[in-house]
Each structure stands twice: as C-alpha cells, then as structure tokens.
C-alpha cells in the first residue's frame, strides 16, 4: 500500500519518509545524550528501526533512497565539515605526516592481508575475500576498488557499514581499555578503520581526536587505492 503511495505521490512520500528518518535519528541522539548507552548510537538505532519498518510496509531500498535524496545531498557538505578540526590542528599535524603515512601503510597492508587470508581460509570465495579486505575505506572508494578487482561490491558495502558502526560504538572504549588514550593514536586508529562513521563520533570527544581521525580517513582512502590493486592480486596467487 505505502509502496503504491510512493509511486503515486512521490513528493509527499519523500517528505514523510525524510521526516521519519530525521525524527528517528534525533530521538536516538537525544536518548544517547541523556543515558550515554553505547547501543543508542543514532545511526545504529535509526537503521534498526527503519529496516523493519521498510520491510513491514513493503518499501524497497530503491524507493527509500529516492525518497530521501535530500539527505544524500546534505551528506557531502557534512563530510566537508569534518575538515574543520583538521584545519584547526594543521600546524601540529604537519610535523608528524611522515610517521602517520608509514603507520597507515603498514596498517593497511596488515588489514588487507589478514582479512583476505582469513576469508579464503574460512569461506574459500575470492569475490567475498576481496570484498571483506576492503572494508576499512569510504564506501565509494571501496565499491570502485571491489569492482575493479572482481569482488562482490554488495558485501563490501555491508562490511564497510559494519566496520564503521563497530568502530564508532566500541572503538574508543576498546582503545582506552588497552591503555591507548592518546588523541593522536585514537584518531589514527578509528579514522583508518571506521572511516566517516567513526570520525563523526570522535569529533565529539575533542578537536584533536577529530583532526587526526580526519587525516587517517583521507590518507587511508588514498593509500588503499594505491596499495590494494597490487597487494590483492599478489595474495590471490597463493590460492591458484
């Protein structure tokens, strides 16, 4: 019924679905701010509510995506806004750029290699192994690289979302548990592993956290795009 309503009244349906999405997110954000529960992460909460709702009302993802296109347009300036803490901390960050690149290159090689080898060992499906090994970059780059390397891009999208959510939910607490409390270290770790979702959470902790996470987000995307096209084919040779 609602899917037919979307087809017949796209503008009104778009307004209603967009308002529901925003209201759900804001409700979760208000609850998390009040009670400080990890599982009340606004993005995770919104997904948990909207997915059953869409299934119940027979609205497919394409219809939902078209109806909430305005939110997709607003996403780009929101991501650009993450550059503000980077600008604020730029004088300090430029003294560490060589060390940061070295750390991120090492981390990317380890993450891709371990993810690919474990996936091949447990699943023995090259397309899935490729998809899972590219889970720690932003979605557009991850999907593009997966398609170029003949992986399953739908799994890449899901893996990127899960990596982002887990990093945002548990990353800072896990690092603190390990005794890693430096804003620089936490920022680099979360930004490289959990991309935009993790960075958006760290920005709330401090400008320094957000700045280093933004740097890791950007550099990891560029470095992964340079490293994965030769590293993944190299790993595949061991399974021929």
TrEMBL record:
The lineage of its organism: Bacteria, Pseudomonadati, Pseudomonadota, Gammaproteobacteria, Alteromonadales. It comes from Colwellia ponticola. GO terms for cellular component: membrane. It is found in: Membrane. It comes from the Bacteria. The chain crosses the membrane at residues 12-31, 38-58, 99-122, 158-179, 210-232. It holds the Pfam family LrgB. This is LrgB family protein. Keywords: Membrane, Transmembrane, Transmembrane helix. Its main location: membrane. InterPro entries: CidB/LrgB. It is a multi-pass membrane protein.
């Amino acid at each position: 019924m609602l899917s037919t309503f979307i087809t017949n009244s796209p503008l009104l349906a778009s307004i209603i679905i967009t308002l529901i999405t925003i209201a759900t997110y804001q409700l979760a954000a208000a609850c998390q701010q009040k009670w400080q529960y990890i599982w009340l992460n606004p993005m995770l909460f919104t997904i948990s509510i909207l997915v059953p709702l869409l299934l119940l009302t027979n609205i497919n993802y394409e219809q939902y995506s078209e109806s909430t296109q305005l939110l997709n347009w607003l996403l780009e300036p929101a991501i650009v806004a993450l550059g503000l803490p980077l600008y604020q901390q730029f004088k300090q960050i430029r003294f560490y750029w060589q060390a940061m690149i070295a750390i991120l290159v090492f981390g990317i090689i380890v993450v891709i290699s371990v993810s690919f080898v474990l996936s091949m060992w447990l699943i023995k499906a090259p397309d899935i192994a490729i998809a899972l090994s590219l889970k720690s970059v932003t979605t557009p780059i991850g999907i593009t690289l997966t398609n170029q390397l003949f992986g399953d891009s739908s799994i890449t999208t899901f893996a990127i979302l899960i990596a982002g959510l887990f990093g945002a939910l548990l990353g800072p607490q896990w690092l603190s548990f390990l005794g890693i409390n430096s804003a620089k270290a936490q920022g680099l770790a979360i930004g490289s592993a959990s991309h935009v979702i993790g960075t958006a959470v760290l920005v709330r902790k401090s400008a320094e956290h957000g700045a280093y996470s933004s740097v890791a987000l950007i550099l990891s995307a560029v470095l992964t795009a340079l490293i994965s096209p030769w590293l993944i084919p190299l790993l595949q040779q061991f399974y021929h």
